[in-house]
Amino acid sequence: MVRLCLPLVNANQVSTAFGALSDPTRRAIFERLAGGPSAVGDLARDFPVSRPAVSQHLKVLKDAGLVTDRALGTRRIYQVHPPALDALRSYLDSFWTTALDRFTSAAEGRPRTPHA
Amino acid sequence: MPDTLPALTVRKSLTVEASCAHAFDVFTTGFDSWWPRAHHIGKADLLAAVIEPKAGGRWFEKGVDGSECEWGTVLVYEPPSRVVLSWHLNGAWEYDPDPSHASEVDVQFIPDGPFRTRVEFEHRHIERSVGAEQLRAGVDSPQGWTGLLQLFAARANESAA
User: How many contacts (CB atoms, under 8 Å) link A and B?
Assistant: First the structure.
């Protein structure tokens, strides 16, 4: 039985994420984004800090890998991006590589590689 | 909530030196012959992993003790061209019955000559299986972001040790 599901998480990434969330305003902004994507302007309206300050907080969250941004017209939309997703995707990518190799061998009638 | 997470997909393209019908059969009815034995969710050792050969069929495992554990459902079964499975396992290899958390495995078999097949594999909506609940619960709860990060930290430390 496989219990360890996310072996590829980088310890540095985790501590950077912790650091980014240690600031109360940043944490509140992150929490707000966890409820849905938002533009910088919308966030600036909802938080008692200036727009440049919001942008700076978002930059820190982005550098920590906690949020991603994309352009939508002239606006920039931010959304949460948990490191969990990258880790799970990497894990499944490598898992399926192994599994599909075994499938190919079975379909081609070749001897199987040792059980993974 | 899942809409707020970026879509995540694993794609693989492979070529198999076998007919399309054979490749399809090995993937589906022959699933147990190639599935990595260590990857299962039941407490008992894996006796067999099964894809039932029909739309609406079960995707499940049988344990050596006679127990059965669901993995998902056969959504599309079109031999020898395509099979689509719902994958109800989360990142911890646990069964999650909630359909909104299920990801999908879509496999297409495309003939490339009589004895060669191109297999287009896609595991999509992976983002549905992780994160949403934890984020909704809030960052401070043990089930929330903080708890999640602590879990990762512990695992990262384990793997680094």
Answer: 155
